[in-house]
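[User]
Um, tokens okay?
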Amino acid sequence: MPDASWPFDNLPPSPGSTGSDSDDSLDEDEANSRVRPHWPHYRATLKLHGFRLDTVEDAKAFYRCSADGRIPEFFLLKHAGDADDDLCPDPGLPDNLFRGTRTSDGTKIMLKAVHLQSREFAVIRFLSSPPLRDDPMNHCIPVLDLVEVEEDNIAFIIMEQWSSQLIADEGPCTLGLFFAALRQCIEHGAFMHKHRIAHLDISLRNLLTDYQGHYAYIDYELSRRFDGSYIRIPSFRTTEVPPECEALNGECPDPFKADVWALAVLILRACKLAGYCVSELVELTRPMLKENPADRPTMQEILTAFDKMVPTVGNLDRLPDFH
């Protein structure tokens, strides 16, 4: 029986987000730096496109629907002088994100402001356009609209509002459902690499769910789409830094294999979070964590190996044992 415990005891600490402005020298350019828009200025423009930014009244309604139905005292004090229709940014979000609603049907949305010429906007537009948008391998967060404001060199990515709480309040999921979630993570990686896109920030914190069995990648601030054969990235920084980048003083020789390493770490962290230590799954990650990136499998090879592995694991209906 393979030793299924070793990766959980040796996972590197998960550092905080570095943001796009700390990638390489190209990310120092304004086009790929983080946008901090004055949201009230774009309120009318977004309304014309059918989207409404959250107001004080929206926040109050959220609290009224909570378990105790009461609006917290700190919120009332903070917004004591505000009108109900004043904008109400979520203090837990960075300045480039804002919650809102699609006016046609009440769908809750997340809006992200980016530079019009940013790599992130180009990647999102590519992944969210037909035929890629409709490809079943594509597990990018559903994008409802892309609003461009050319005079300000800014764009708004309008996404469905999913949850970063990967395990629902109702409790843990079965092993079969856990495998289904992991497969979506692997499949989207294979899909991106097929189209010469490296995500470059694969981690649990960049994974969301709609609690309907769907999981999606977010945060393409560091992502790159490669047209040629030269793919090295100098001064590479990300959430999960592979060993070759540390050995090369931050240079990333193969972004695609860096994604593979980060995906292995995501899988092991997900196992720990969900309470599953499956020896077959641990074995799957071993080659993904090879120190030499050239020795790591491709995303498509990982997906194929995963699909062959799942039928060999018994009792997919079982629940995790946290004891």
